[in-house]
Request: fold
Amino acid sequence: MGIYIFGFGSSILLLYLASHINTKQRWALALIALSIPCLIAALRANDIGTDTSVYLVQIVDAAQNTSSIKEYLNISWFSVWRYKSVSEYEIAFTAVIYIVVKLFHGMAAVKFVIEALMLFPTYFALKKMGKERYMWLSFLVYYCMMYNSSLNVMRQFIAMAFTFLAFAYAVERQYRGALIFEIVAVLFHTSAILGVVIYGMFVFVNKNTPVRGFKIFRNYSRLIAVTLLGLLLLVATNVIVKIMSVVGLGRYADYILGDITFLPNQILVRLPIFVLFILLWKRMQKNEAWNRFLFAMLIYDFICSQFASVLSYSGRITWYFVQFEMVTLPSFYMNSKKNKLLLLIIIGYLIFYWWYYYVNLNNGSTVPFKFY
Reply:
């Protein structure tokens, strides 16, 4: 556990220092800061992060023991009552592993590059969104809420990072760049198609015209409509399954087919953010357009977290919404006139979140840390 604390702390410190120096030196410090968690990922044992031993080890072995791409893609192994092959995993992920293995001949290099493909696009996305001044706080959110899961849910987290970067470009109406990064995201994990839906929600909730039937709520009619739609989908999973089949995500249908039961712990752990959002809403009026969207992301995080009652893997979809906490929580601090008490509350919450999920519940099997 100590290596996580040391790694997170040193990386955050360097990012904090980087935000207070000139641009030329900033790049060097940011590079070192983000390389530290990549190094931790590289040095971990193969049983740190469940999916590492489920498919990463096998794909790396296939790359090491084959001399052609065709032979590499046809390698298969027996896992969880069936045979799996390299070719059934997304092409961008398997291609990256093949190239890294052929260049550096080692598992550690693969793990380092995989983590880098999560952290660096995330950094550039936050920078694109103008969050560089408080990048250290955004990455504290990442380290406490998502880093340990990234050691497990590797393909999706790479896809999430590029989806986040695509969103940053789309918000600036740089649609060519957004399209390129969204395609890259989908090539790493097909679930990244959700990025298109998320940007659609951003556009929808920020329109000024009220939704018919909700005019009484004026500026919040679209946010209410989006929330009600999410709740409706929660109780009508058959509709989601049909939509997933249409957009090419039918392979994930089994993740939500089943009885959904209420998970109060998923709500309670997110409740402090919800409460802070409500209490600080008036102080954040100048960013109301963004506030509506970020609040919608929080609501969908609440809703999608309940899918974990069907299957533990089903709750993974919520990470696409959780990543926006890297924008939300620093916004609380920036819009409260840098209230030190509020900052301590946010940091305390993040530390508790990390302990609760990754130490207490040991989600993803990443604690205690073991070296490779």
The mean pLDDT is 88. Strands lie at 76-79, 82-85. Residues 107-128 form the longest helix (22 residues).
